[in-house]
Amino acid sequence: xxxxxxxxxxxxxxxxxxxxxxxxxxxxxxxxxxxxxxxxxxxxxxxxxxxxxxxxxxxxxxxxxxxxxxxxxxxxxxxxxxxxxxxxxxxxxxxxxxxxxxxxxxxxxxxxxxxxxxxxxxxxxxxxxxxxxxxxxxxxxxxxxxxxxxxxxxxxxxxxxxxxxxxxxxxxxxxxxxxxxxxxxxxxxxxxxxxxxxxxxxxxxxxxxxxxxxxxxxxxxxxxxxxxxxxxxxxxxxxxxxxxxxxxxxxxxxxxxxxxxxxxxxxxxxxxxxxxxxxxxxxxxxxxxxxxxxxxxxxxxxxxxxxxxxxxxxxxxxxxxxxxxxxxxxxxxxxxxxxxxxxxxxxxxxxxxxxxxxxxxxxxxxxxxxx
Amino acid sequence: xxxxxxxxxxxxxxxxxxxxxxxxxxxxxxxxxxxxxxxxxxxxxxxxxxxxxxxxxxxxxxxxxxxxxxxxxxxxxxxxxxxxxxxxxxxxxxxxxxxxxxxxxxxxxxxxxxxxxxxxxxxxxxxxxxxxxxxxxxxxxxxxxxxxxxxxxxxxxxxxxxxxxxxxxxxxxxxxxxxxxxxxxxxxxxxxxxxxxxxxxxxxxxxxxxx
Lengths: 371, 211
Description:
The complex is a heterodimer.
Chain A: H1 4-12, H2 16-28, H3 32-42, H4 58-77, H5 84-101, H6 108-113, H7 119-147, H8 151-211, H9 215-234, H10 245-260, E1 264-269, H11 276-295, E2 301-307, E3 311-318, H12 331-345, E4 349-355, E5 359-367
Parallel strand pairs in A: 1-2
Antiparallel strand pairs in A: 2-3, 3-5, 4-5
Helix pairs in contact in A: 1-2, 2-3, 2-5, 5-7, 7-8, 8-9, 10-11, 11-12
Chain B: E1 4-8, H1 12-22, E2 27-32, H2 35-45, E3 49-53, H3 60-69, E4 76-81, H4 86-95, E5 99-102, H5 107-118, E6 123-124, H6 126-135, H7 146-149, H8 153-163, H9 168-175, H10 179-195, H11 199-203
Helix pairs in contact in B: 2-3, 4-10, 6-8, 8-9, 8-10, 9-10
């Protein structure tokens, strides 16, 4: 029940049905079987799933059977014996049931008609049925008169028990097979989910790469797919549902990289949770990245984020054409003004440092407010 | 004389690409697809620089670096990988590699890195600079060797500029120091990274600092 019989059966290499029968028979001797069962249970002799069970050799099984019979005789001879009738009845019923419920057997009816069942198997089945009938007969002979149960009632009950014993194993086996099938189905669903994911992402990208003749676009596709697959495989999951600024910055960089076809290298040191003020930092950094990707003409853009105890700093650096802040008006000025305003509202400062022909660096600083 | 270079990577396609990119400037003495062959051939060829992939079966790049440095201590290693798992990269450096670059590096930058490694300098990609800053950040352990367990303010400045994507030349100009001085700082950081016993270095990757 607690897996003890199964564990012991695996260890001995015999069917667990017989081990259970032995326990039940032994229990009639002043509960000895129960004690042994409890003892083994405490020793945690559990059944191990998927363990390779060596097939039992016939002489080994006979040896165990003879050993068990000897043990019973020994118990009888030292006077540890309730009554022949009780032990024999229960023993016959238990082992008869065991013969019929043995997992390796196809069931009592099948055993008689199924040609694939070999002769020892059929013989065992017949002995099992014989033991059962014998046990039931002895039982009714002993118990019937004592309790004066109506013979008809007793016959009905015994027939019920007989049917249950004969067909019960077949029903339980069916249930077990259903469980195995369910596990297999779950496994298949997981596989299908993974296949679907790979299809939507990796295979799709590979198809796009094959159709594309623009090397830049090809490498951008590959790069985007690489980081996406990496996230899927080893992704840093948010800690307890808390969003991290580093993750958000990486996501933003990935998006902008895909939109504007310019690689963005992200380097992160330390981290901070994402809240209202750090979200402003994220927004400003994203704007700076878009700005660099769109206007600088640089081959790649760098984003560096560092968090320490007092301050969060973000640098968005490109080595593109740069601009002279005194002269360039319009769009770019507007953007750098909007970046500055955004960070200032959150309590930080932003600086844009650009030189013609040298590239541009946007620095965003935000003091960490002790919470 | 141009550097004699050996390549180790279990992805043959990538190997062929790198070989084509570097063969103009350097003498490619050979290449290996697996750890054992690579160790044996590097011992035989005794090249100046070995480009080694971090992730390979049978022990990976670390096994190659450790296997060779025992017998040929003058061989210089540059780790090359698609991995951006910090612990893998730091482990390579601690095993003895003198630099780390990602496989997405531009061919010209890769050639430059090989040249630098050949000259005895360390090569820090922006990403490696970030890893190192992260590794040396945070509270100090109880018994510290300030010589090894801490970066100087100047070294941190240099690493931050590298992490921001600047080349050594630009770093030098921004800090008003010579390129040679930048190289000295980077080499010193590399030495600390290899010798420091800050326990964070071993397990820092599992512990992300959240301010």
